[in-house]
Amino acid sequence: MATILPLPTSPPILDTELPFPLWRRGKVRDVYEVDGRLLVVATDRLSAFDVVLPTGIPGKGVILTQLSLFWFAELASLATPHVVTADVDEYPPALRAHRELLEGRSMLVHKTEPLPVECVVRGYLAGSGHKDYRATGQVCGLPLPPGLREADRLPEPIFTPATKAEAGHDENIPFTRMVELVGRARAEEAREKSLAIYARASAHAEARGLILADTKFEFGMRDGRLLWIDEALTPDSSRFWPRDGWTPGRNPPSFDKQYVRDYLETLQWDKRPPGPALPAEVVMRTREKYEEALARLRGPARDDGATAAKAAAGDRGHGATEATGASSVLSE
Ligand SMILES: Nc1ncnc2c1ncn2[C@@H]1O[C@H](COP(=O)(O)OP(=O)(O)OP(=O)(O)O)[C@@H](O)[C@H]1O
Ligand SMILES: [Mg+2]
User: Fold this and answer.
1) What stretches of 75-137 show up as alpha helix (H) in DSSP?
2) Where are the domain boundaries for CATH 3.30.200.20 in the chain?
3) pLDDT number for residue 8
4) 245 in helix, strand or coil?
5) Whose CA is nearest to atom 6 of ligand 1?
6) CATH architecture of 22-112
7) Hey, whose CA ends up nearest to atom 8 of ligand 1?
8) Would you give the end-to-end CA distance of the chain in angstroms?
9) Of 16, 22, 25, 29, which is best to mutate to test ligand 1, by the most ligand atoms within 8 angstroms of its C-beta?
10) Could you tell me which of 46, 27, 42, 23 has the C-alpha nearest to residue 86?
11) What are the pLDDT digits (tens) for 294-331?
12) Is residue 112 lining ligand 1, measured as CB closer than 6 Å?
């Protein structure tokens, strides 16, 4: 399991310049090619409305990396993670000179050929899923019951793939389109794995007072096998809602970038680059939310009535297991 590292108090890391071939600079991660593998470095960059903001969140890259490593280890039986190691002592010697930067915020991973599709699972109606439903009564071609409100729980979790747009926003696609893009066997395998991970992760989160409303996975091919790549179930890739604050019909406060989005909505910004700088208060509160998500999700299950009642009602899967082991004290 991931070790608990002290989170940095130093200024945010916005860019890295390591002496290795840069394989890709994503919105959040800088990826280098090292000895035939990839070194994924999570920076402290923050994107909102798909625009990388000029202000970073100190330590965010460490929090995202630690949370991803936690989930990869916890759920490895459901999909093989791409991680080779996140222990700098096990990195190639040339990398160890950069320990100060890399420790806690990097992982050495298998290089894969990423599927050109984001594998999204939704258990609740929010974001672009809610938007599509309002317009068509469907999400990615999947018909849903009429009368659902924003943030409503869906009858069952649904797999709603999206294309990875090189620029701009991802676009929801029907599963048949995903089959055309990656082939039926691969598409079915990715869907099955995504739904299995969502089921286990959402039960885990719920036992800790958090609803996993939706989440996005990436998979890549290596030697004919599908690996679980990129990040795993972080506030950047997922909507986590505190169970206490969840009321269907309203967009709940969330652990993702709600403070940032709320602040940005007060400005006259047209959501196109360049994005505005964030005030210190928003930076601090955002960092606290990321930290809280990490602490809650890695912490013990909460032994409260709701979880116990759910288990007693025979809720299938991980939730029941969590509840029976939930004798530990509250983590907060
Ligand atoms: N094991 C891997 N093999 C190949 N590519 C990988 C692997 N792990 C991650 N990647 C790629 O590295 C990049 C990571 O950058 P980042 O997470 O910032 O991505 P992004 O696509 O720009 O943003 P977002 O995740 O918000 O869509 C992504 O393009 C991802 O597909
Ligand atoms: Mg990504």
Assistant:
1) 93-96, 99-102, 127-136
2) 22-112
3) 57
4) helix
5) 230
6) 2-Layer Sandwich (3.30)
7) 230
8) 21
9) 29
10) 42
11) 999 999 998 664 554 454 444 443 333 343 332 222 22
12) yes
In this prediction the pTM is: 0.89
Q: Give, using CA atoms, the residue closest to atom 20 of ligand 1.
A: 26
Phi, psi of 123 (to 5 degrees): -105, -15
- How confident is residue 257, by pLDDT bands cut at 50, 70 and 90? confident
The ligand whose atoms approach the alpha carbon of 236 most closely is: 1
CATH 3.30.470.20 region(s) of the chain? 114-281+296-308
Q: What is the CATH T-level fold of the domain 114-281+296-308, as seen in this structure? A: D-amino Acid Aminotransferase; Chain A, domain 1 (3.30.470)
Pairing of strands 117-124, 210-222: antiparallel
Contact (CB, 8 A) for 59 and 294 = no
Query: pLDDT tens for residues 133-180?
Result: 999 999 999 999 999 999 999 999 999 999 987 666 789 999 999 999
Distance CA 284, CA 54 (A): 15
Q: Which atom number of ligand 1 is nearest to the Cα of residue 30?
A: 15
Would you say 95 and 200 are in contact if contact means Cβ atoms under 8 Å apart? no
Q: Hunting for tokens 């950047």 — which residue is that?
A: 236
φ, ψ of residue 137 in degrees (nearest 5): 75, 5
Which residue puts its alpha carbon closest to atom 11 of ligand 1? 230
Average pLDDT value for the chain: 89
